[in-house]
Inverse folding.
């Protein structure tokens, strides 16, 4: 979670995500037909889109909360401005991550008020 706290999320993706990782949002992203995307490149593109369209004023990241040997969750509290509509808001997101036997993230799921 240190990479998230330091704004180095892409470095975290490179180190901890499997190539065929699946990302599931609470709803489909703009220009997507599904709330799920697959592959590290698709997730990097999602991160790029977010950074281009939102100005982050503050993001708090909890420590990981473990669930068995292959899952953990993190809570993100974000204060950001949506540049597309020039609106500032705060949000809380619960992220649940599933790992493979080697510890690589193979699935991420995001829960938030849509």
């Amino acid at each position: 979670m240190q990479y998230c706290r330091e704004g180095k999320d892409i470095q975290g993706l490179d180190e901890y995500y499997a190539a065929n990782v699946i990302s599931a949002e609470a709803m489909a992203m703009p220009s997507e037909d599904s709330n799920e995307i697959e592959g590290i490149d698709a997730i990097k593109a999602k991160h790029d889109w977010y950074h281009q369209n939102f100005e982050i004023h503050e993001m708090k990241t909890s420590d990981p909360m473990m669930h068995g040997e292959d899952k953990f969750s993190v809570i993100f509290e974000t204060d950001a401005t949506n540049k597309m509509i020039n609106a500032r808001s705060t949000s809380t997101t619960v992220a649940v991550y599933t790992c493979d036997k080697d510890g690589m993230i193979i699935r991420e799921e995001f829960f938030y008020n849509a």
